[in-house]
């Protein structure tokens, strides 16, 4: 028996199998979609991630039902924590929600697909190179896509800047308007404390060809994580100026900021 089906038999519960039978995921005869998603890898990863989600980070989710049951959607969140843990937590929450679960796709930095083995694993889990062309094609296939408009400005921020949103790019708004896709804002609280960084060695990062080289304790702390999903935001398609696009982006950013503040207010302790 091949490894992935064997791991699926060993680690995946009947409950999670039932969840996945309700998720339509078109893949080819070899079990992959055009961006490398493999359902066996995805479900095994989710099964292995269950104790991390439930016991280690003790994740609370609020408003997950705001993500549409079907059709294209952009799930727009703040980014933090040096590693893309926030994206995996959001993906797990949506793939395992009780009603209308979905396997979302996560836009990742260009650096990750270049890492041997890690890049392939992320693709098989559902992550995709954060490229407008990829995003547009997946919206055309009515996928739900996790987007972090801050990019490395958010994930690589220092601990002293925690919960301060960095600049949002406008690209996600253009795609949402072109594909008439709702935007579901998300406020992530807790990932800022998972790998606190006190400095970034920029020359080292440049020499190694990586987005940043943080000075941090090489340990992922068990911070409590709260995910707040807001009401879907709809933006009319059509020709508008870039300034008007930016105003729409600011509206999304303000909603993400409000959801972060809500999570910080709800959180009783960091760990």
UniProtKB/TrEMBL annotation:
The keyword Transferase applies. It holds the Pfam family Acyltransferase. GO terms for cellular component: membrane. GO terms for molecular function: acyltransferase activity. It comes from the Bacteria. Residues 73-191 form the Phospholipid/glycerol acyltransferase domain. SUPFAM superfamilies: Glycerol-3-phosphate (1)-acyltransferase. Transmembrane segments: none annotated. Keywords: Acyltransferase, Transferase. InterPro entries: Plipid/glycerol_acylTrfase (IPR002123). This is 1-acyl-sn-glycerol-3-phosphate acyltransferase. The lineage of its organism: Bacteria, Pseudomonadati, Pseudomonadota, Gammaproteobacteria, Oceanospirillales.
